Amino acid sequence: MALYTAASSSERIAFNTLNRKTGNRVKREFIDSETGDPVEREDQVKGYEVENGQYVVLETDEVAAAIPDSDKTLKIDAFIPCSQIDTTYFDKPYYLAPDKMGRDAFLLLRDGMKKQGVAAIARTVLFRRVRTVLIRAHGKGLIASTLNFDYEVRSSEEAFDDMPDMKIGGEMLELAEHIIGTKKGSFDASTFDDRYEAAVAELVKAKIEGRSLPKRQAPVASRPSDLLQALRESAGIGAKVTKPKRTAANANRGAGRQKAAKPAAKAKQAQAPPRRAG
Amino acid sequence: MALYTAASSSERIAFNTLNRKTGNRVKREFIDSETGDPVEREDQVKGYEVENGQYVVLETDEVAAAIPDSDKTLKIDAFIPCSQIDTTYFDKPYYLAPDKMGRDAFLLLRDGMKKQGVAAIARTVLFRRVRTVLIRAHGKGLIASTLNFDYEVRSSEEAFDDMPDMKIGGEMLELAEHIIGTKKGSFDASTFDDRYEAAVAELVKAKIEGRSLPKRQAPVASRPSDLLQALRESAGIGAKVTKPKRTAANANRGAGRQKAAKPAAKAKQAQAPPRRAG
DNA sequence: CCAATCGTCGAAAGACGATTGG
């Protein structure tokens, strides 16, 4: 079977960090916190803090030995009724498709599960961990969701600790149901848009075109991929663009590193945590 | 309303990187990729790569201006039938509990939704983005799942591109259903254990106790939190523990940084501090 | 090339964001 990532934030606008003074990209170097000397990769070891400032040292290969062997298979443990699934455990979704070999078995699994109204609990090694996955029929194929480990999911008891054990009934409940009835809608993913992403895209576009952005204009929400397309088109127009000076010797290195470019604008964390809503 | 993280990997064993030669912790410094000079935080700006090596510069405050204002509320857009929900969009789960003020409204919402078999689609600002969340009744309270943005979820079309449009029927399907029937189980989160985590915990424990670990022993799968407890108990026994040398001048800084240390041996948080969103 | 990892920051035991492994 082949796994395809079903959800990914890779379409987001990606930035690199630059040095304002030179326009060059920035890279990070690891230095000793006491001596300030650079620490090469082969001198970096893992430390488990036993007590304040006391560490047990673990060598890279010792940690690597703990990684489970991957036989690249997906082993089904059991089939469970779809009604029993606790979605709190859901981690990431992957589409599952058959490879050349297992097409018949794949279709049998899909249709058998669909007919019985069950999902499969399976295990597979994914990124160094043995992951439990939940497999369900999904359209023409299957969808596998990795499940959080038991220790990762908190009990709701604490959160609902001082919840009154009271049930609403009678007229009040009818009123609530009426209000709910007036706001019926449907699950429409096209409304799940990302205004921050749109605003950042608009900002970049304005910069490229040499415009200044009106303060706090409400950005038009649209698919970032459309905006990326627009950005690419705008790019030719040119504006305040910084071209880093580079030495001939470094030209290749720099080009290679562009691939590593990573997403996401981190600006100031304007979000102070405790927030009241609702 | 208050939001409580329902799933977190914070109970995992966390390491710090050490310099093998000195036993000191390592920290990272940002340096200019061409000149090699350190780049201070205030000189770090975002660059959007327009073309190979050409960047549009975005200042931190410009990017920050794109962050939506948070009025700290949770606005319900609509109620949708639970049957319509596409779990491919699920991102992270949060428990929702009422604050002092809104207890009645909370219970009305919970019981009204439960009775009608619907979930609420709402919006709130979470970590700089306006997020769409799906709210459902869950035990005594509510659970809110952030939903992936539309552009983050891939169409399954590509993955299921060359899936034969064939349906299994008759005897073969019956056989499949029979096999499924023989492997019926239940959704049991206690079996969702993390063998890698357990093996790493065992490795650390062995190190602390001065044992050497048998090669590739099959680690006993148990809750990492139990293992962490065991580690704490072992810690007194002492073994090969590295104590970083520190200068008097750095003692305070070092102590301060310990807080920053991801508490590997973190005792279970009595109660996760609620993020207020309500 | 993408996605998961990893270390750090800072307060939220969570998210960011550069890096690297598959």
Textual characterization of the structure:
Two copies of one chain form a homodimer. With 278 residues, chain A is of the alpha+beta class. Helices cover 26% and strands 27% of the residues of chain A. Chain A has helices at 60-64, 103-116, 156-159, 170-182, 195-209, 224-235, 251-258, and strands at residues 2-5, 14-19, 26-32, 44-51, 54-58, 75-81, 90-97, 118-126, 129-138, 141-147, 241-242, 262-263. In chain A, the strands form three sheets. The first copy, chain A, has a six-stranded antiparallel sheet with strand order 1-7-10-9-8-6. Chain A has a two-stranded antiparallel sheet with strand order 2-12. Chain A has a two-stranded antiparallel sheet with strand order 4-5. The longest helix of chain A has 15 residues, at 195-209. Chain A is extended. Chain A starts with a strand and ends in a 15-residue tail after the last strand. At the A-B interface, strand 1, strand 2, strand 3, strand 4 and strand 5 of A face strand 1, strand 2, strand 3, strand 4 and strand 5 of B. Strand 5 (54-58) of chain A pairs antiparallel with strand 11 (241-242) of chain B, so a sheet runs across the interface. The first copy, chain A, binds one DNA strand of 22 nucleotides through residues 5, 8-10, 14-17, 26-28, 30, 126-128, 259-266, 269, 271-274. Chains A, B: Belongs to the prokaryotic Ku family. Chains A, B: This is Non-homologous end joining protein Ku. Chains A, B: It comes from Sinorhizobium americanum. Chains A, B: GO terms for molecular function: double-stranded DNA binding.
